[in-house]
Specification:
The complex is a heterodimer. By secondary structure, chain A is of the alpha/beta class. In chain A, about 45% of the residues lie in helices and about 10% in strands. Chain A is globular and about 75 Å long. Chain B has 13 helices and six strands. Classes of the chains: A alpha/beta, B alpha+beta.
């Protein structure tokens, strides 16, 4: 069996979040559509495993809300507190007694900040590693003949980059169950977060770490697929686009790194950033299927099949409720400045407003 | 001998009953040699259908199931298996360069294995230096076993040929042989690696549980405290935070090892201590000079800076202690509202001593108040009125 782990991105994901993504992959995995799939029935050879870590952020925010509520009930003490050190004490109390909001910034951006700049990120990584290790345990997985792969999205790409980096370099670690076969990163923000996080929170270098594909014993996977949509404001800013020296310097030359760049015209949903939106695209799912299948990856969709799949996809594009005006507003985000952290946050907030 | 109609009927019925079996597709059948090879290892029924391979596979499994590190039986078995694999690989190495590489690695590994007296010798830095090729991760073989055979089929131009093709029957047989070797080698590897995999699972689960305890079994950290502590841990060592750690828990925080590009090479373990920074809370304050009936008042307890530390008992932070510099603010009538002093905390119960002008105030945190109300009914009634 080939286990495919699905790792969510930022936002409020709850258990069962991956069902739509799974359905999309099953829908397109058809030998009638792509002959190279042969008679390898999906459910007979592949099993999905959903990874959840959002509960860690949620739990923290709930606890923070309780603390805020407890302090908020004693508001009469804030006035005297304001008289201490020019109101510093009062301001901290006010911050502590303000419950976290449920807005886009908190549900999305706070996840990123918590992950990158606090030890909640360590809790997340250890939880993700633990879930993966539990699924690859003896009795459920045989490294002699089974394989495993990862599909990660958005913040999940950064989470997996860090988890695999440490999981493969520390012992005991993932080497005991073998390398992943495919690592699919959709809307990869790992480099963006490395660049925008203040240097005090050392974020390493995603082009010079262990998370690269290799045919040899190094690296963490055999194939690395990186999918980026040209209008996805989480992916086009400081896009993950490795140089020829990526990893051990052979990943690109050996043809093991597979970038998939989706055109601005290819939109079937308002949320271009969504994992489902990526997986619907024939260039993404057919590349994934190609390398998920055992073998060398030589077999792939034919040109005719891809043309047919793209024609069907473009029909869905026309049917999508995406107006030209909305598309223009999305396009306009690309023209904004996004060098500084506050500029990046500003773009994301505008994107959140577009979806609202 | 005559055939009665009833016998004919019985024969026909038997034939009809057997029809579903004829109608079932063979799970191992495939249009090309390559597909057939793929199925051999991915469909259990296919490789188990091969008596020779199943026997080898079961031999390995059975041998390792009864492993006994003391008696070195499993090591003997591994040695034998690997020798056999190395020999087999050598015999057929011409068709795939990677097999030669694998063979070389296995050959050297076997030489080192001969000098190994106990599995324990493999561990630690010394083990890694003395037996580098016996570090199991050096024995990685590329992907699913079928990949090896598939390359051979590709080289022979047989990937897409259908099974009756005479020219490719031999190539297919060689591909199967090669792949079977890898399959068994991978099985050996997976069994050898299982102790490490089990240790990994246990360690991952414990680390996850400890991080949860770090946040919720200690004094709850506000988000700015999380960021400050992450910063302090990043620059610990001989800096202030490290020195405090040595003083409080006899160990400094440890920055995980990094590669030259700054990527971590180790997990960050949940610490045994944490800084407290700008942490507001609510307590009940006692000021003796206040008018009778108003000596107990709700108070804001503000920890400016301090430390809490604890012990790990299994996966849980226990015996949490803390010491911090605090301000308390209460609606005092006769004394200064704001006082400055220290707070000590033990297992969730905290007492702050602060000076308000000429008077010393005692402030208890709500958990301690709750505990006291459980002990004394009169206190309970009095304090409950104030709390509410």
């Amino acid at each position: 069996m080939h286990v495919i782990f699905l790792v969510h991105g930022m936002g409020s994901s709850t258990p069962g979040w991956s069902k739509r993504a799974q359905d999309i992959l099953r829908k397109h995995y058809k030998p009638e559509k792509y002959a190279f799939l042969g008679d390898f029935a999906f459910d007979a050879h592949f099993a999905f495993e959903e990874i959840n870590y959002n509960n860690i952020f949620d739990r923290y925010l709930v606890e923070a809300g309780k603390q805020a509520d407890k302090l908020g009930r004693w508001s009469k003490l804030v006035d005297p507190a304001n008289q201490v050190l020019n109101g510093l004490l009062g301001r901290v109390v006010a911050a502590a007694s303000t419950p976290p909001s449920k807005g886009f910034l908190v549900t999305h951006i706070a996840d990123v900040a918590f992950f990158m700049a606090t030890d909640l990120g360590e809790h997340v990584k250890s939880a993700v590693a633990s879930q993966i290790a539990a699924r690859l345990a003896k009795g459920k997985f045989d490294p002699a003949k089974d394989s495993w792969s990862v599909i990660a999205h958005s913040l999940g790409t950064r989470v997996m980059t860090e988890t695999l980096q440490v999981g493969f370099s520390a012992a005991p670690g993932f080497l005991s169950v073998g390398k992943a076969r495919v690592l699919l990163m959709a809307a990869n923000v790992s480099r963006l977060l490395q660049e925008i996080v203040p240097p005090v929170f050392n974020a390493g270098d995603v082009y010079r770490n262990l998370v690269y594909p290799s045919n040899g014993p190094l690296g963490v996977c055999r194939h690395f697929i990186n999918a980026t949509h040209r209008l996805d404001p989480f992916a086009f800013i400081k896009e993950f686009d490795p140089p020829a020296t990526f990893g051990d310097g052979n990943a690109l030359a050996d043809g093991l790194y597979h970038p998939v760049k989706l055109a601005t015209s290819d939109i079937t949903d308002k949320d271009v950033h969504a994992l489902e939106h990526y997986l619907e695209h024939p260039a993404v799912h057919s590349t994934l299927f190609r390398y998920l299948l055992p073998g060398t990856g030589r077999k792939q969709a034919t040109r005719q099949e891809m043309e047919q799949a793209m024609a069907e996809y473009h029909q869905a594009t026309l049917a999508a409720q995406v107006t030209n005006a909305w598309r223009a507003r999305l396009q306009a985000l690309k023209d904004e400045q996004f060098q500084k952290l506050e500029e990046v946050l500003g773009i994301w907030e505008k994107y959140g407003d577009l979806l609202a | 001998m005559t055939c009665s109609p009833s016998r004919w009927f019985a024969a026909l019925a038997a034939a009809l009953l057997a029809l579903p079996a004829w109608g079932q597709t063979d799970p191992c059948a495939a249009k090309s040699f390559e597909d057939r090879l793929l199925k051999r290892y991915t469909v259990d029924a296919c490789w188990k259908g091969d008596a020779a391979l199943r026997k080898r596979f079961e031999g390995v499994t059975r041998g390792f199931a009864g492993k006994d590190a003391e008696a070195l039986t499993w090591l003997d078995l591994a040695r034998g298996q690997l020798r056999a694999q190395a020999a087999a690989v050598q015999a057929s190495a011409g068709s795939a360069r990677q097999f030669q590489d694998l063979n070389d690695r296995l050959g050297l590994a076997l030489t080192q294995m001969d000098g190994l007296r106990s599995i324990d010798q493999l561990g630690g830095t010394d083990g890694a230096q003395r037996f580098p090729l016996l570090q199991i991760n050096q024995w990685d073989v590329d992907g699913p076993p079928a990949n090896f055979g598939m390359r051979h089929l590709e080289e022979k131009g047989c990937s897409d040929k259908s099974p009756p093709d005479e020219a490719c029957v031999d190539a297919y047989a060689a591909a199967v042989e090669l792949t079977d070797h890898v399959f068994v080698v991978k099985k050996v590897l997976s069994v050898l690696r299982e102790p490490e995999a089990a240790a990994m699972r246990a360690q991952f689960a414990q680390r996850e549980a400890r991080w949860a305890s770090y946040f919720y079994d200690t004094q709850f950290p506000y988000w700015w405290e999380l960021a400050v502590n992450r910063y302090l841990e990043q620059y610990c060592g001989d800096a202030f935070h490290g020195k405090v750690g040595r003083l409080l828990v006899d160990e400094a925080c440890k920055r995980p090892k990094e590669d030259p590009a700054g990527n971590p090479l180790e997990w960050r373990e949940p610490p045994r201590y944490r800084a407290i920074f700008l942490h507001p809370d609510i307590g009940l304050q006692y000021l003796r000079d206040e008018p009778r009936g108003e000596r107990f008042k709700p108070a804001l307890v503000f920890q400016w800076f301090g430390y809490q530390w604890w012990d790990w008992k299994e996966d849980k932070a226990t015996d949490v202690r803390a010491l911090s510099l605090v301000s308390t603010v209460a609606d005092a009538a006769t004394q200064k509202r704001h006082g400055f002093g220290v707070q000590v905390r033990w297992k969730g119960f905290a007492v702050a001593l602060t000076r308000h002008g000429s008077e010393l105030a005692v402030t208890l945190n709500l958990m301690l108040v709750d505990r006291m109300t459980e002990l004394d009914e009169e206190w309970s009634a009095k304090l409950k009125r104030l709390k509410d």
